[in-house]
Amino acid sequence: MKRSEVDRSKLSPMMKQYMEVKDNYEDSIIFFRLGDFYEMFFEDAITASHVLELALTGKQAGLDERVPMCGVPHHAYANYVDTLIEKGYKVAIAEQLEDPKDVKGVVKRDVIQVITKGTRIDDSIDSKDNNYIANIYNFDYCYGISYADISTGEVNALLIDGDKDKLIKEITKHNFNEVIVNDTIDREIVEILRSTYNILVTITKEELEDSNYSYIYKDIEDIRLVSTIKHLLYYIIDTKKGDLHHLQKCNIIKTNDHLEFDINTKNNLELVETLRNRERQYSLLWLLDKCKTAMGSRYLKHTIENPLTDKKAINKRYDMIEKLSTEFILRDDLIKELSNVYDLERLAGRITYGNLNAKDLLQLKTSLKALPNIKKILEELKFNKKIDTLDELYELLEKTILEDAPFTLKEGHLIKEGYNSELDELKKISSGSKDFILDMEQSERERTGIKNLKVGFNKVFGYYIEVSKGQKNMVKEEFGYERKQTLANSERYITPVLKEKENIILGAEEKIINLEYKLFMDIREVVKRYVSKIQRIAKIISEIDMLESFSIVSDMYKFTRPNLVNDRVIKMIDSRHPVVEQVMKDKYVPNDILMDKTTNILLITGPNMAGKSTYMRQCAITVIMAQMGCFVPCKSCTMPIFDKIFTRIGASDDLVSGESTFMVEMKEANYAISEATPNSLILFDELGRGTATYDGMSLAQAILEHIHDKIKAKTMFSTHYHELVTLENDLKNLKNVHVSAIEKEGKLTFLHKVKSGAVDKSYGIHVASLASLPKSLIDRADDILNVYEKDSIKNETFTQTSLFELNESEAEENTNEIEEKIKEINPLEMTPMEALNYLYELKKDIDK
Ligand code: ADP
Fold first, then answer.
1. Which neighbouring-strand residues pair with 296?
2. Ligand 1 atom index nearest CA of 753
3. In this predicted model, what pLDDT tens digit does every residue of 356-384 receive, in sequence order?
């Protein structure tokens, strides 16, 4: 049964109410609170029952058929919501807004918040990562992007000019979980974001009018930026509904403030996750993250994604790392103190937004307690960081919140003795009366002679005297006991004295709970006033934590301080790939990366598997680390500041978008060529191999010439077309280098050592032999190869030089159908399995 087809006039009042609520939240699954359950109806119920594996039932709602329904217990709803959010749904929580006890008829219900992927602030979001929601606004010649992390209160905005592809690159680079767009945006963009990148996209044109939040954007002059921020804020405030004043003043991002690179580069260089498993382990982030706080880890990730371009700021970070490394005792003290600091940014979010509990305040207190020491250490280190230690806030928390307070606020046991005299008085009454109960048990036993008489309590009957069945007959009229309840093994009574005490106790306990709740809320109001100060402290702590982490890894992995120069010179001595080095340990061979003022292009030749792409990657990673303000994996490093990095490395083909390897390759090359400046770094790994040899080689050469003559960016270009090495003669800013390998008795050993000059041979087939392909097959491949080389066939799709020579007559003889078969295939279009099967077939033919 569809919701849209229902005759609403026939519906029960509750279901009518549901329909009205749902009308306002068409795109969300409504969790509709009914007593102890959240129920879902109609299409929502059908979807949720599938996704959450719940039983689909029905509810009588006044119609002929029952309305589809499923539900979850209210106390366990969070996990179900998580699952739905993960799958890309939005969930609107509709609560009962009145106590059913106080109302006749249908209780008022409405949505108190909508939970979406990008607006979550609960504990299930990754503490080491930001959770961004963005607004994209299209103007005539540019796009406005604003984005916020509601859990930390960070708000950013930027303008980018350019086309759709550039916009999508920008969006994917920031890893937004959710994007809001206005309704005039190109629908193709929406489609790409949704289906290719799995981003939750909402189209809306609403804009914020509430001036309470104008402080976020009031200093911004560009009305385009203001407009995108206001659209973002409208959506956030409309979904979260609570107080969001922890959202901070918007930070305007200027693209030239940062070393720019796109998502492909971020992926290719495995900056925050590995290519293969998309895991943090073995990424650069994993290697560098020795942060003690979640804030530090998040800031580190942000820094990897946004290295600096300001030399002064970078050098300042180097100075601080150097200081931390020399003053290692102070550094140890700092680490100890930082370990006591909780996630202040997210605590600040919870303080304002409202889902704060006593444990959060205890975490805040523990964090504040560490501040005076941190401040002292920073002073001793002569770091110019002003930390406000918020002593009065610490004292307030210290004297108010009980150390073992529970998570819930409605059970009492939150506030310490001595803070509020009324509360202390009530607690005295309550505990005094409890003593009275114990005394009473004692005295009643003596008075009645019933030895196992007990005084107990339960929620339904209150306090009672319990006598076991065996001793029931000992209860006499004169005791004044009034029978209340008969159980299988005992009898329960009350007396007027007990009842009177009970009223006092229960009254006091209820008052205690209410008063503690009120006091807690008052304290929260006070804490709220400190939110912006807490956020400021959080910023300082994040940066210090990151630098402390840099200092640790620099010592651990022998990183050195780079020397940033204005000349366009790269001189990285004994450079290493920091992650590969850690995996290989002392087997790793360091290499120099040298490009003097006149060298812009390094043309890198060498056999497959020799280490060409690792060599290029380590250069880019070193640049990124240096501009993050971190030390670098080299013995010494001199380099200029780069503005952008472009990479086309490895086989990270854009499988999702369904484009061919070659198409992706050419698009990447085009992107680099159109965006690079003389201050950029370009890495091209085997560019052009996705097409036939002569095509690929010609393209590679043309691209090299273009970069050489027009762009002049520092470029590393690896190739197996060693015909290209002769370019060194014509292009004066191009230098050949090669990664060496030695060949003994037909076997290859890789030295991984980069040397100047060109390699004269390629050893593809030998790499195949390393992969343990059958010897007969390898020999055969060598033969065929020679035929290609000798015949200089014009339209072949495959070329490799061999170390072995074969005379022409032998080659003639071997020209057979196998060769034809090999000509027919394009290895780049085959899966490894298909290739292996094909080889297997070939071998069978040879055996025949
Ligand atoms: P290519 O790009 O030339 O095909 P890669 O850069 O992918 O080669 O390197 C192949 C393998 O060689 C890597 O997986 C790595 O284990 C190893 N390797 C690369 N560079 C070095 C080095 N400098 N020292 C030791 N091993 C290396």
1. none
2. 23
3. 899 999 999 999 999 999 999 999 999 98
Q: What is the pLDDT of residues 595-647, one digit of tens each?
A: 999 999 999 988 878 899 999 999 999 999 999 999 999 999 999 999 999 99
- Ligand 1 atom closest to Cα of 617? 6
- Nearest residue (CA) to ligand 1, atom 4: 609
Residue type, 441: E
The DSSP symbol for 560 reads: B
Task: Select from 580, 649, 686, 754 the residue to mutate for testing ligand 1; criterion: most ligand atoms less than 8 Å from CB.
Answer: 580
Which atom from ligand 1 is nearest to the alpha carbon of 718? 2
Ligand 1 atom closest to residue 750's alpha carbon, by position in its atom list? 12
Cα-Cα end-to-end distance for the chain: 67
Contact of 307 with 624, CB cutoff 8 Å: yes
Is the separation of the CB atoms in 12 and 62 below 8 Å? yes
- How far is the centre of ligand 1, averaged over its atoms, from the C-alpha of 835 (Å)? 23
Mutation test of ligand 1: which of 573, 614, 635, 683 has the most ligand atoms closer than 8 Å to its C-beta?
Answer: 614
φ and ψ at residue 275, rounded to 5 degrees? -65, -45
pTM for the predicted model, two decimal places: 0.82
Note the pLDDT of residue 772: 63
Instruction: Name the pLDDT band for 807 (thresholds 50, 70, 90).
Output: very low
Edge-to-edge strands, sheet with 636-639? 563-564, 636-639, 570-575, 591-595
What are the φ and ψ backbone dihedral angles of 743, each rounded to 5 degrees?
A: -120, 120
Question: Which ligand 1 atom is at minimum distance from the Cα of 685?
Answer: 2
| Residue ranges lining ligand 1, Cβ < 6 Å | 580, 584, 587-589, 591, 606, 608-614, 752
- Write the residue with the smallest CA distance to atom 10 of ligand 1: 609
User: Please, which residues have CB within 8 angstroms of residue 149's CB and are 6 or more apart in sequence?
Assistant: 130, 131, 132, 133
At residue 642's C-alpha, the angle toward residues 639 and 643, to 5°, is: 170
Of the candidates 260, 111, 114, the one whose C-alpha atom is nearest the C-alpha of residue 642 is 260
State the distance from the centre of ligand 1 to the C-alpha of 609, rounded, in angstroms. 6
Distance CA 655, CA 664 (A): 9
Query: How many angstroms does the Cα of residue 172 sit away from the middle of ligand 1?
Result: 29
What's the gap in Å between 770 CA and the centre of ligand 1? 14
Own/partner long-range contacts of 256-260 (Cβ < 8 Å, ≥24 apart): 256/309, 256/643, 257/308, 257/309, 257/310, 258/306, 258/307, 258/308, 258/309, 259/306, 259/307, 259/308, 259/309, 259/623, 259/624, 259/627, 259/641, 259/642, 259/643, 259/644, 259/645, 260/643, 260/644, 260/645
CB atoms within 10 A of CB 212: 11
